[in-house]
Amino acid sequence: MIDLNQVLTFSEAAEKWGLADGSAIRKAVERNKFQAGEIKKSGQVWLTTYSAMSRVFGEPKISTLKIDRRHFFNLITTRDNSLEVRTQLETMQQEVLQAFADHKKVMIVEYKKDKEQILYLFTNVEEFNFWIALHEKSTKNK
Q1: Looking at residue 60, what is its pLDDT?
Q2: Where are the domains of the chain?
Q3: CA dihedral (109, 112, 113, 117) positive or negative
Q4: Of 6, 28, 50, 139, which residue is least crowded by CB atoms under 10 Å?
Q5: How many CB atoms lie within 10 A of CB 107?
Q6: Could you name the domain of life of the organism this protein comes from (predicted)?
Q7: What are the DSSP calls for 57-91, one per residue?
Q8: Closest alpha carbon to 93 in 110, 120, 75
């Protein structure tokens, strides 16, 4: 199943990676920097993924707060209501809010075979909260 939350337009990707606009990404396409299946044109809009952008352009050149996806989801989905878990979740939420207040981005990463993969990159608290709400909704439907 495809996670559409990991799909970006070139304009979105350019903003998140700190590029001037989508033209740098289009030039990378012209130079065959992307692999098959990493980009697609849908109508007039070009699409790519976080992992493709990371492979071609490296980590975003902007200041970010990194959060491990597994740890974060364990905190927000656990039924453990202990003081320790509540404190960890509150601390993480404060770090996220502070990052946005400091004009940083928030990056959700996953580690596979000791390799970091960017799953999501949020530019504001509204994007981040929407993502959490989607995850909570999908978790309840399971």
Answers
A1: 78
A2: 1-59, 62-142
A3: negative
A4: 139
A5: 21
A6: Bacteria
A7: H-S-SS-EEEEEHHHHHHHHH-----HHHHHHHHH
A8: 75
Q: Summarize pLDDT for 99-115 with one digit per residue, the tens.
A: 998 888 899 999 888 78
Vertex 65 angle, CA 59 and 68, to 5°: 85
Tokens of 61: 């050149």
Are 105 and 122 spatial neighbours (Cβ–Cβ below 8 Å)?
yes
CATH topology of domain 1-59: Multidrug-efflux Transporter Regulator; Chain: A; Domain 2 (1.10.1660)
Q: How far apart are CA 62 and CA 123, in angstroms?
A: 10
Give the CA diameter of the chain.
54
pTM of the model: 0.60
